[in-house]
Each structure stands twice: as structure tokens, then as C-alpha cells.
Amino acid sequence: MTAAARRLWIRRPLAILAEGAAGGVVVEGSRIAECLPAGAEPAQPVDETFDASAHVVIPGLINTHHHAFQTLTRAHPAAIDKPLFPWLKALYPVWDRITPEAFRLATRVAFTELLLSGCTTAGDHHYLFPKGLEDAVDVQVEEARALGIRAFITRGSMSLSDAEGGLPPGSLTQDDDTILDDSERVLRLFHDSRPGAMVQIGLAPCSPFAVTKRLMRESAHLAEAHDCRLHTHLGETLQEDDYCQALFGQRPVEYLEEVGWLGPRTWLAHGIHFNDAEVARLGRAGVGICHCPTSNMVLASGRCRTCELEAAGSPVGLGVDGSASNDGSNLIEGVRHALLLNRLTYGAEAVTHRDALRWATEGSAACLGRADIGRIAPGREADLALFTLDELRFSGAHDPLAALVLCGATRADRVMVAGAWRVIDGAPLGLDVHRLREDHSRLARTLFA
């Protein structure tokens, strides 16, 4: 006989991003059992109560695009003040020096940063597989499980070197067959398509200018066979448009359709430079877009057409993008950046703090094809981020939810993943952050200075 799951009442929060839940939520096992209106009591006895009267409670944030390995090359002098293509060209030879130990620590740092920012699902797009790093996906799964964060790891790839008309050097590419074999291996080992899954795998050829058409097509076939998602960079810069025209004689969205990717299984990183017809086409197909506001501003890539894409039918989520173009892995900061950039684009009344939070929760969940996370509601996974407003920056704030975004929250006080506390009093459980920083910094200086 199975023991009954413990019931926890997160009681009467200062504010909560959920309908009819001013009295808090009851968590039973890994899921939300009840949302309580103001003044209500749980329908059944609870085993424990947490007083949330000082906390703003939101759904756990969901990151849909990152490159964890780049935490080792933040603010690197070779790449500062460059747009995307020169930035990549400057960093490819630097990244070629990454070791298995460095990659493991880079992943641990990135996932820990995300967790501390209120993120409960860490998406990562890893596309570098130099010699010795062939099991990179395995490492990232291990690190996510150790930290207790939900993970969506995409098996990225680059197969078209600069000698073949692509962008990366040959030392960072693999041949198509090697990539496809390993893609199938990690899907069989780790991909869990069931509700409540802690680990899911997607397939993510890096970009049109780094892989062959064959790899794109074969990846789409594999995704169908294993019921997984597809992900790639697309529409990030005008230079990419020119590159696609020169290499394939097509604009990026035309290329996407030719290789069998124009459908709801796909979500794209950045999605900035789409014309009106392409926005409509992507929306009709249900292709998701991961908006990366911080990276787009750092690299001056442009502004994602978030409102038009959503109106056309595309899910819009948020991503921090790599820590060499964002220089951080903080998703609640990304929410604020999304609000500010999109207000600048569309006007003060057109985009609200609730829109930006929705992109980082429900929108991101839709990009990943998940209906079990991203909202606080009965039956959903108990993935929650709790923030206090006790820093000086929040003094004088009147609307707690708005203050979280407008006043610039940076760190959660508590984070729950699948019903279990993973951050308490602003610290990740079971992890020496000081030691992690020392070890990670030492390797960054040793390998990449």
C-alpha cells in the first residue's frame, strides 16, 4: 500500500500570480492540489503549513534557451562590443579549449544561477562536442538531477565547417551520422514524454549556417519517431538572412519549411527578423519563439516581434541565452528586460508586467509542449518561486507583483520544484556556492584567459 503524499499549505501569500488563490495553495506530493480563495481553509487536513505572508508567489519560471558552457567566457575581451558573427568567430577558438571538468562546472553554475532566479525548468542548447566532450548531454542530465531542477536539454550540433561554407571551424563540428546516432542514444536514455517529467530531450541543430540540410531533415524524422521537440537559432540577425540567401538561395523561414520543421513541434531562438508574411506563416504553423531580450540588446541583434507573433498564433517564451552574450543566467532579470524592451517597441500600455511574466511561464511551457507546468492551478506540477520584497529597492512599492518586475527582483527566497524545496533562504540545498564559484573561476582563468 502506497503511503499518502504529504500535504503542504503555502498560506496566504502577500501576492500570488494565480486566479482565486489569495488564500494560498495546497501542495500534495509533486502537484498542486488546491488553490484557496481569500479566507478559505484547505478542504482536507495538511501535514505542514508555510507562512507566505511576506512572499510574492509566482509559477516557477521556465527558461527555453541557454548555452551553459558560456558561463566560462563571460565578458571575454576577445568578444566584447561585437555583433553576432564576429562575436562567434572570436569565441569559437576559445571554446575549442573546453574540458569535461570545465563543462560540468559551467553547467552546474548555469543551472544554479537559473534556480536562484526563480527558474524551475532549465532549458539548455549545447552544440559543441570537441574531443572528450562526446557525453555532454549525459553530464547535463546528471547535473540537473543532482540540483533537483527540471531540465529540457537539447542535443545541439554543428556539422558544416567554415571549409564547407559554414561558420564554425572543423574542430568543433561532427559528421551527420555521428550526430544522428548520438541524438537517438540520448533520446532513448533520457527523454521522458510523460506529464511531470523531470528530464526531456530535444534535437537542436545549431543554426542554418552550421549544419547540413540532411541533418535538419533527419532530425525532424527522429523527433517524430521519439515524440520530442525541435529547436534551432533562426532570424537572429540580418546577416543571417543574407547568409541563408547566399548559401541556400532562401530566406530562413523558407528553409525551415523545406526541411520539415514548420510545425508545432518546433520552437526557435530569437526570431527577430521575420517579415509580415513570415510572422503569419509561423503563427499558422504553431511554431514557438523564444524571446531573448538581454542577449538581443547586448549583441544589438534587433527586437523580436513578440506581439505580432503571439497574435498570429505562435507561442512566445523567454530565454536568458548564453552567458557570453547575456553574461548571466538570471531569468527574473530577463523578465524585466522583456518588459522594458517591448514597451520601448510597442508602447507603455501595450505590454504589462503580467505579459512579461506570462511569457516566462505559460508561454515558455507552450514552447516546450508542456501543459503540466507554467501555471498555478490544481493538477499542475508544484513548481513555484517565492520572492520577498524586503530589499531597499522595493521600499515604497504598492503593487507586489508589479514591483517584482518593475523594481528589479534578482533572487528568489524559496524555490520549489515538483513539490520539493530546492532553494531555502536564498540558498540552493546541498550545494557549496562559494566553492563552486572558486572552482569555476579558476578553470575559466586557466583555460580561457
UniProtKB/TrEMBL annotation:
Keywords: Hydrolase, Metal-binding, Zinc. CDD domains: ATZ_TRZ_like (cd01298). Belongs to the metallo-dependent hydrolases superfamily. ATZ/TRZ family. PANTHER family: AMIDOHYDROLASE-RELATED DOMAIN-CONTAINING PROTEIN, AMINOHYDROLASE SSNA-RELATED. The lineage of its organism: Bacteria, Pseudomonadati, Pseudomonadota, Alphaproteobacteria, Hyphomicrobiales. Its EC number is 3.5.4.32. This is 8-oxoguanine deaminase. The keyword Metal-binding applies. GO terms for molecular function: 8-oxoguanine deaminase activity; deaminase activity; metal ion binding. It comes from the Bacteria. Residues 56-419 form the Amidohydrolase-related domain. Pfam families: Amidohydro_1.
